[in-house]
Write a structure and sequence with these properties.
- There is one protein chain.
- The protein is α+β, with helices and mostly antiparallel strands.
- The protein folds into two domains: 3-94, S16 Ribosomal Protein, Chain: A; 95-162.
- It is 65% helix and 18% strand.
- The chain contains four helices and five strands, in the order ββββαβααα.
- It is rod-shaped and about 130 Å long.
Length: 183
């Protein structure tokens, strides 16, 4: 019986997430499986992976073959590296302590990369918000200047109209003042 470690699709259309399962190669993609190892959600950034590494390693040791995508996930989680190091220990190429040291060094490096990516994403979002706020402030300033210019033009036009009206009223008032003197 050929046993595969593969993904089983779940979720809605255009919003899939996957279960990582061990299944007979003859079973349907979303059909019967032997064991559920974890889940993979590519909709988050970075993609979230929950995996029982010990069980996945045990299945690899008994000959389960991962599919291409499952192999990438297992590699990302370090299961394949652990399998490789355990093979080296079994052959006597290195000691268990050396294998554990290599594993811990790799794990620390990977965790640092993930933390850097998450921090970078958060910082990019913060910078995007700051840039949007600055752009909005510029637009608001431009609008305020335009409103101030219109108000100044309106006030100038109103003052000119009042001056014209006052200029027209002044000669009429002078004529009215002179008229009673003649009578």
């Amino acid at each position: 019986m050929a046993v595969k470690i593969r993904l089983q699709r779940h979720g809605k259309k255009n919003f899939a997430f996957f279960h990582i399962v061990v299944a007979d190669a003859r079973a349907k993609r979303d059909g019967r499986f032997i064991e559920l190892l974890g889940s993979y959600n590519p909709n988050t950034n970075p993609a979230s992976i929950v995996l029982n590494s010990e069980r996945a390693l045990a299945w690899l040791k008994v000959g389960a073959q991962p599919t291409l995508t499952a192999r990438r996930i297992l590699s990302y989680e370090g299961v394949l590296l652990r399998h490789h190091l355990d093979g080296g220990v079994a052959k006597g190429a290195l000691t268990q302590e050396a294998a554990d040291a290599k594993w811990n060094a790799w794990k620390a490096e990977r965790d640092a990369k993930i933390d850097a990516k998450v921090t970078g994403i958060k910082n990019a979002a913060i910078e995007a918000r700051k840039a949007a706020k600055a752009e909005e402030a510029k637009v608001n300033e431009a609008r305020a200047e335009a409103i101030a210019r219109k108000a100044a033009e309106l006030a100038t036009a109103q003052a000119a109209a009042e001056a014209e009206q006052a200029a027209e009223e002044a000669p009429a008032a002078e004529e009215a003042a002179e008229a009673p003197a003649e009578a």
